[in-house]
Amino acid sequence: MDCNQYMLSGTEIYFIQTQESQASIHFWASEVTKFSNQYNTGGYSANQVLGKPDVYPKYGDSVNTWTQSSSQLDRVHFIEVKFPRKIFLTKVNIYETYHAGAVVKISAKDEDNQWVVIYNVTHAHVIRKARKFSPPIKRIMFPVDELRIEVDCLASKGYVEIDAIEIVGALLFLSDMCPLPFFKYRSSCYFIKKDAVSGDEAFARCLQIGGYLANFETLEETMLMKDKLKKMKTGISYYVGGRNINSKKPGGDWRWIKHGTMTKMTYFVFSKGEPSGTEQSPENCMIFLAGDRYKIHDVFCDNGYNLGGYICEI
Q1: Tell me, what's the pLDDT at 36?
Q2: Which of 131, 147, 219, 309 is the most exposed place for a label (fewest CB within 10 A)?
Q3: Contact 46, 38 (CB under 8 A)
Q4: Residues in a beta bridge with 254
């Protein structure tokens, strides 16, 4: 195996050359944003988890770890940490150096600032040796730079000490690959979901996996996707990221929406006779319509009808 090592802002990056180009990047926690409590403000404080391990692989009580207050060892405690930048997670490593086995939940913060659970067990146990804990985590489709770690002190009836927290994953711009479930098509990463949802639901679902409803800002992009959908032969219509923001204006004011930014359409993308919505009958969402050979139509965003799949992009 050919492995090359590089540095990015003091962070080790390993590029492993296989049949397909892949990139793996490791980040250590760089900031503590919140915690339930700590034993002290210097040694044993929450900030002791920052950076590379100071104690591991040694086992035993150490001031160089995050340790809980002696008066609150009968409950679950948490620490929330931030990393230097967002990556698509493949692994979380937690370096436990005293009363290991106490980690019961790991959550990742999504782009709506909500915690998404990626690892959860109902009971802690006690391991009287140091370990690098790398639990199986739920696959998530959004990039992450914040974690919440929860530890149950009750099993050991004593301190739980965490030395360091590390994330491993991929930076999209360092690789030709698109993170799953997205696929590379021409110069973009897409996810085509066969489903039966409204335009509003499609919009939300793309956000939930770290993307947005696909923008087709050139005629060439639109024609390439239209050709792909026709060849898929699913018979399903697919929502895309165009929205009308002014139903009072004849023909509407159609924009591509991407990460909260609205870009005015620079070419007429609709099928003949479209858009057909009015102020009284607002059809403000955009769809590749299967019944019209995947030409673009405007439809109602959420009226219980016009259900379809959707195309996400990152």
Answers
A1: 96
A2: 219
A3: yes
A4: 244
Q: What is the structure's pLDDT at 140?
A: 80
Rounded to two decimals, what is the model's pTM? 0.54
DSSP one-letter code for 180? T
Q: How much is the pLDDT for 303?
A: 85
Task: Identify the three-state secondary structure at position 2.
Answer: strand
CA distance 226 to 208: 25
The dihedral formed by the CA atoms of 137, 138, 140 and 145, expressed in degrees to the nearest 10: -30
Q: Which residues of the chain have pLDDT under 50?
A: 1-22, 173-175
> Is the backbone peptide bond immediately before 57 cis, with ω within 30 degrees of 0?
yes
Which amino acid makes up residue 275?
A: P
E runs forming strands in the chain: 2-8, 11-17, 24-28, 31-35, 76-98, 103-109, 115-120, 131-133, 144-152, 161-170, 183-185, 188-197, 212-213, 238-244, 254-258, 261-264, 285-289, 295-299, 308-313
